[in-house]
Amino acid sequence: MLAAILKDFNRLELEDIPIPRPGDDEVLVKIVSCGFCATDYKAIKGIRRNVAFPFIAGHEPAGVVAGAGKGVRHFKEGDEVICQPSGYCGVCQYCREGNSHYCEHAYTTGGDGPEDVRPGAFAEYMVTGESCLFHKPANISFDAAALTEPLSGAWKGVIQKSEIKIGDDVVVIGTGGIGLLCLMVAKAAGAGRLIAIDASEYARRNAIKIGGATHAIDARSSNLRQQVYDIIPGGPDLVVEAAGPIEAVKLMVDLRRRGTRWNIFGITTHEKFELDGGLTHFLEGRMDASFGTTPLAMQSAIRLMERGLVNPELIVSHRYPLSKIHEAAAVMGQPERNKVIINP
User: 254: helix, coil or strand?
Assistant: First the structure.
């Protein structure tokens, strides 16, 4: 099979390698679509360094079952499936509490986080555990299905952790691919006024056209708090930071009023910000954070797509065959793109 193998930072090579064979409780999936995540790009470019070589990235796949181990019970050859990138044991304390993304024995296919990193979906075939698979509904395209994992992250952050309510006024800081999905989930959940903040005019246009934002503000402009409060005089009920830079977190802190819920969703770097302890006490808000996904979040994202409430395919801006993954990587470094899809 053809696979894109990262041999070292900035050394991504296309090679023909043997098709992997599934173990007893594993499934071989022929990849049809795989999202190109920013963490994949950061691994390729050496921006994130927690990479062991050789490495096959790609952790947002959907495809067709091409083979199954003798212990597999719920999937058969020909089934169209969606793959959760994070594998879990199911029996540790965290798994049994419903927090399988904390699993003490976790693995990932093509992603990062656990020490056990297995080959991902920037290849024609991938092996994963049966428990990581979901049946793809017929009315969901493969490209949309490949975005189940990022959509599930948006659901987990906005719905499960921050508990958005119908009519809530919401601010989303950073409206790239994941920010757009947060906007779409918030809109589907009944957000009232929905403000997008981003430095990119391209992103702001998409926030309104695709994400359903009612307003968009340039993050480079002055008096951001005043601009938000001109639109929402009472202040936001919920602020989601989906940007990444520490400046976005600082802006989120500045936008709070009494009772605001705020979610540190986008930042993954170890940078510091300050809180006024007394002010935070008397504002009586609630800080949440969210990372990764769980079976509950994946299944909930599938329901959103199947019911026609959210269509993540709308955020796809570029598609490339696996043979042109270097072109795809170049586009990932450009500002005017949303989601890039690899179709092996």
Answer: helix
